[in-house]
Specification:
single chain; 119 residues; alpha+beta; 7-stranded antiparallel sheet; 2 helices; 7 strands; 22% helix
Length: 119
Amino acid sequence: MTDYKLNRIEDTDIFYFAKGNIECLGDTIVQGTFDEVLAVAEQLKNEAKDPGTEDTTKIENQTALIDIQSAKWFVIFLSDDLVQIVRTPGDVVYSLPLGLECYEERLELIFERIVKKFQ
């Protein structure tokens, strides 16, 4: 059975959802089956101060990922086995990795997208 894990970079809203033993930044919050990791991720989503209100926007224009000045949730597919979930802070200018499949959307839709990708 394949293990999954959810990592978080301390004091940020930057998370990594990874399959297997993929190396990623941050501290591991939970590791286990897909359903176990997803359950913890869902709990964190439900406790989020700002779950977002955005509908899905696929980022086609990569310059939209540079100098972001508002608080938004993004999901970025770093590889087939690694997904980054980021909430830009809104109080500082923030840029995200370029050249990758990326969507701006509320947390609920991000988790639906992760389920589709890994199941």
